[in-house]
Amino acid sequence: MRRFLLPLVLFLVLVGFLAVGLRLNPRQVPSPFIGQPAPAFQLQQLAAAEQTFSPENMRGRVWLLNVWASWCVSCRQEHPVLMDLARHAVVPVVGLDYKDGREPAKAWLSEHGDPYALSAWDSDGKVGIDYGVYGVPETFVIDKSGIVRMKHIGPLTPAVLSEKIIPLVKELNGA
Amino acid sequence: MVRKFLAVILLAAGVGLAGAGEALPSVADPGLEARVQALAEVLRCLVCQNQNLADSHADLAIDLKNQVRDMLRQGQSEKEVIDYLVQRYGDFVLYRPPVKSSTWLLWGGPFLLLGSGLAVLLVNLRRRRQQAGAALSETERLAVERLLNGDDEGKK
């Protein structure tokens, strides 16, 4: 009996590792930005080329930076969630239109609705690289002093919003 | 007929030439390109995670390669480029994970397994040797002799 004990224990340990490993999402790469200042940039606004946007403009407010594009399929999936967020005016959402044409992007917003306070136009994706963007959509929660507090990769869901982002925004606003 | 064939062949050749023209790498600086290539082989493409930047044709990989090329052209060193990318994408962007406290199991694990395997082997070998070396008592020796001689007395 005892000779089977060791293989059995080893087997159970292996099963444990596999069970955890299979549940991990390899796309969720931990962002090195959490707790770091959001990289500065200055971009044209999508709607008005003569105006620019810089994260500095949002100093003193808690805000979300949502990376999107008109060619991005998952952005369509999260879009109703963002629209809902905008309707309740919980937190200002700034869009970063990533590697997109100005016209298709504007058409996309007028077709599906525009949940953004404004969108900055990152036509060549340089700002995206600065923010470590690798899978659109991505959402950053940035606090009053411009520190990144959270990053969500992939489409926002109502659950992520109500369980993680909104409580965090409330906490940051209270502090 | 012959003329038609000729036309087709010419057309095909033309298409081939056009393709070849497109495929020509616009390498103005082979030295720089070699450095970009060397870096691209140790950096991971974050979209197709099991490929490095050199192998990947994903949009992001191409952008990152361009970024690497720009930075090298501006005179930054390989280390500065890698630091820049690690700052943005984390250690995950490195194809070869760095040795640090969170990765010691990854690096040390195989040696740990090898060590424990060797330990088990040694313990087993030693136990076997001890068993082989144990001397028989006088009565046991006699019993063995009886059995070997085909004497049935031992069984009774």
Q: Give the DSSP E fraction of chain A (strand runs of 2 or more residues).
A: 15-25%
Oligomer: heterodimer
What is the CA-atom radius of gyration of chain B, in angstroms? Answer: 35 Å
The CATH superfamily of chain A bears the name: Glutaredoxin
Q: Can you tell me the CATH topology of chain A?
A: Glutaredoxin
Portion in helices of chain B: 55-70%
Radius of gyration of chain A: 20 Å
User: How much of the polypeptide of chain B forms β-strand, as a percent range?
Assistant: under 5%
CATH H-level superfamily of the largest domain in chain B: Cytochrome C biogenesis protein
**How many structural units, i.e. domains of chain B?**
2
Q: Which architecture of the largest domain in chain B does the CATH hierarchy give at level 2?
A: Orthogonal Bundle
The poorly predicted ranges of chain A are none
Which strands sit side by side, in order, in the main sheet of chain A?
5-4-3-6-7
Largest sheet entry of chain B? none
The number of domains of chain A is 1
Q: What is the CATH topology assignment of the largest domain in chain B?
A: Helicase, Ruva Protein, domain 3
Description:
The complex is a heterodimer of chains A (175) and B (156). Chain A has helices at residues 2-23, 73-88, 102-112, 126-130, 158-174; strands spanning 43-44, 52-53, 63-68, 93-98, 118-122, 138-142, 148-153. Chain A is of the alpha/beta class. Chain A is built from five helices and seven strands; from the N terminus they run H-E-E-E-H-E-H-E-H-E-E-H. Chain A has a five-stranded mixed sheet with strand order 5-4-3-6-7. In chain A, strands 1-2 form a two-stranded antiparallel ribbon. Chain B is mostly helical. Chain B has two domains: 28-98, Orthogonal Bundle (Helicase, Ruva Protein, domain 3), CATH 1.10.8.640; 102-155. Chain B has six helices and no strands. Chain B has helices at residues 2-23, 30-42, 59-73, 78-89, 104-133, 138-148. Chain B starts with a helix and ends in an 8-residue tail after the last helix. Chains A and B meet through helix 4 of A and helix 3 and helix 4 of B.
